[in-house]
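Wed. Picked up where I left off yesterday with 60S ribosomal export protein NMD3. The coffee machine is broken again, so keeping this brief.
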Amino acid sequence: MDMDMASSGMFVPPQTLGTVLCCICGVPMEPNPANMCARCLRSRVDITEGLPRHAAIVHCPECSSWLQPPRSWLRAELESPALLSLCLRRIHKPLSRLVRLVHGEFVWTEPHSKRIHVKLRVQREALHGAILEQSHLVEFTVQDRLCESCSRAQASPDQWVAAVQLRQHVPHRRTFFFLEQLILRHGAAARAVRIKETSSGVDFFFGHRSHAMKFVEFVSGVVPVRRRSDKQLVSHDTKSNNYNYKYTFSVEICPICREDLICLPPKVSNSLGNLGPLVICAKVSNSILLVDPETLRTAFLDADEYWRTPFGALLSSRQLVEFIVLDVKKKTPEVTVSGSRYCLARVEVARMSDFGQNDTTFDIKTHLGHLLKEGDVVLGYDLYSANSNDVEMGKYKGFELPYAILIKKSYEEKRQRKHGKQRKWRLKRMQMEVDDGARGRGSEEKRNNEYEEFLRELEENPTGMLDQMTIYKNKDHRPSETASMLSGDDDLPLDELISKLELSDDEEGEEDEDMAQ
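Structure written out below (tokens, as returned):
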């Protein structure tokens, strides 16, 4: 109707909201049920009456966790949303009974003051149905007290309840380095009381059996394992009939690693559709990806199938030999399996040790046809001169071994150009004790060399494993124009994978201390 009146040209008086005078101070105001302005209403009615102004919160100084009554502990940083939620839960009952919470935020205080200030905006019905909003400051006193895990560890490091023993029977630690990064990224060992590195694996100690079981479930989800558990009686209270046990979980990781050459047992080969018998382990997660380098047939082998008929590697990555590519012949179309590309091709190669010494060459099939060109250096297994006494190989009558099987392209020339140059990225390390059996100058040097090989492998295969890790910037990296000109376009695309986080000084100190042990 208003639109019709406006269109017809009729005069429409502007609508104004009526005002009344405050019954106390006489100031014009919008009418409300109390007939008082906001200033007078706030001076006569305090809606925060009955709300707590002081409260206490318990903090563990060792692990930076906060007590969530009655017995659980929550890890949270200062002025974090998790800590704000915990503080509000401490005063939830009077808040929900008296007022309506609109907003809450921290007010900055000195970190060493042992005080946390939380500013609240609350609403409440005042006189005659008028809604009044007011701010309210609550001061929380921080009381330091060790949590159960930290007090047990501080009293005696051996006071653990459950232990997880991770073992893998291989001559290297590549799997443990990779598993360490997965554990750090997902915080799987955050509740561990102590971590000890042994000569054949790593031991994790927990203050509760449930924490150890959760950690075992995590490891079972990322690598193929078999496990067993045992318990030992520590004490028994005959009056209350309470038993105290120490639990031990033994977790054995599958000895098959990436890039291993495997001769499948006939029973396993038949169950996988007559795959192989010579296959390459292309990827290890909670299952094993096997690739036949001569047919590009693939199969996944889960943990249950493997441990039903366990087998070992015919040759491992420590036995790789350098070959030079002389000719690349016909190729087949590329195929993609589990994020990796393969292309079947026929190539002519010669061992680097024979190159220029004799005319011995090998004409072989390879699954790396999409990567290789003439003059490339590749790493592979020399089956022509290898002396293998594998039991499974003797079960295949009339099977002829190929002269060589190529595994990956070599980046040795690129390594030499980058020799002595710092990496622009780094990995975080777990703080571990070193067992007496794993100490010694030779053991430490071997461990450092294996870790350096692991970092090189990450550089050469960034899309294979780096996307499952958290990569940090290296603050000590100083790029130089000469190094960047020499590297050219050969640098691997790691910038998009590097996290924008940096290791703090405390974390770097812990890492340096761990490496020095």
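Quick read: The chain has 14 helices and 28 strands.
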